[in-house]
Design brief:
This protein has about 70 residues and is mainly alpha-helical. It has two helices and no strands. Helix 1 (about 20-35) packs antiparallel against helix 2. The mean pLDDT is about 80.
């Protein structure tokens, strides 16, 4: 009998990815999900990566208020 591992049992790793690399990963996942079918795991990866980018820009705006001007 195979046991499916849930996300709560997995170890999160810190990865240093550029915004472009994250964008590429999200694009490829989006194409895959569109052609096949999205899964809960794909949705979690999307949320995690998009959240990392959002948090980066929120931090930048805190330190540099005119960051997007």
């Amino acid at each position: 009998m195979m046991r499916e591992t849930t996300m709560k049992n997995e170890t999160k790793l810190l990865c240093a990815l550029t915004e472009k690399e994250i964008s590429t990963i999200l694009f490829v996942l989006q194409v895959y999900a569109h052609r096949n079918q999205t899964t809960d795991e794909i949705e979690r990866v999307f949320e995690e990566l998009e959240g990392a980018v959002d948090a980066h820009y929120e931090t930048m705006e805190t330190f540099i208020p005119t960051f997007h001007d």
